[in-house]
Design brief:
Elements: H1 11-35, H2 42-75, H3 87-117, E1 123-124, E2 128-129, H4 138-172
Antiparallel strand pairs: 1-2
Bound molecules: protoporphyrin IX containing FE.
Protoporphyrin IX containing FE (HEM) binds at residues 24, 27-28, 31-32, 35, 52, 55-56, 59-60, 62-63, 107-108, 111-112, 114-115, 122, 148-149, 152, 155.
Length: 185
């Protein structure tokens, strides 16, 4: 079934979840790698900017997917947490999910604005250029650069906690009511 039921995730939510997980984790590691590359000579710049182009194009894909995911969440709400979850655990799960959604918006938006503010084009896999939404601005560029840089570490930390929660429930209660990883697989 494509839609979520009261207790299970449907195929659309699962596809969006795992596709975005793969894209976001790759973006984080490629982002950290490329930002640290030397860019002094023409060759070094050419090497680094290949990664920049790919990072930006996949970042735009991540932005489109999060919009689709938020729309889909309204069309087909997520299944409720099982009754076995204690009130404190419910708050933790919801807080982590909320922060993840927030950062899944903040990261691509700050990256997009950073490129615009720096006057750098965003090519969608060489097919066409994405529209410019803000003009060049050093102050904005610096601000969104900081947001993107710190945001990258925060989203990584939250993904690790999110995974740790899923693994903990799998180990504690494999196949049982609180093993919520099974309904996302
Ligand atoms: C979910 C989406 C995204 C994630 C998780 C992500 C993550 C990251 C991370 C972790 C870094 C390294 C930060 C640093 O150490 O300076 C980075 C750098 C960068 N990202 Fe993204 N990014 C995303 C989307 C985008 C988008 C949509 C664009 C532009 C269209 C973009 C443009 C850039 C640029 C230009 C840099 C290099 C900054 C520098 O040279 O210091 N990112 N990204």
């Amino acid at each position: 079934m494509i839609k979520n039921s009261a207790t299970e995730y449907g195929s659309m939510a699962k596809t969006l979840h795992w596709l975005m997980a793969a894209i976001i984790l790759t973006l984080i590691f490629v982002g950290i790698y490329m930002a640290g590359l030397p860019k002094d000579t023409a060759e070094e710049k050419q090497y680094a900017f290949q990664f920049y182009d790919l990072h930006k194009a996949f970042g735009v894909v991540a932005l489109l997917l999060i919009v689709l995911r938020l729309i889909w969440l309204r069309v087909s709400p997520a299944p409720k947490l099982p009754a076995a979850f204690a009130p404190k655990e419910r708050i933790m799960v919801k807080a982590l999910q909320g922060l993840l959604y927030l950062l899944m918006i903040i990261m691509p938006v700050s990256g997009y604005l950073m490129s615009n503010a720096g006057g750098h084009p965003i090519s969608f896999f060489g097919l066409f250029e994405m529209p410019v939404v803000v003009g060049e601005s050093e102050a904005l560029g610096e601000f969104v650069h900081e947001v993107h840089e710190y945001g990258g570490w925060v989203i990584l930390l939250i993904i690790v906690l999110h995974m740790a929660g899923a693994i903990k429930h799998r180990l504690k209660d494999k196949g049982g009511e609180s093993d919520i990883l099974k309904r996302m697989l």
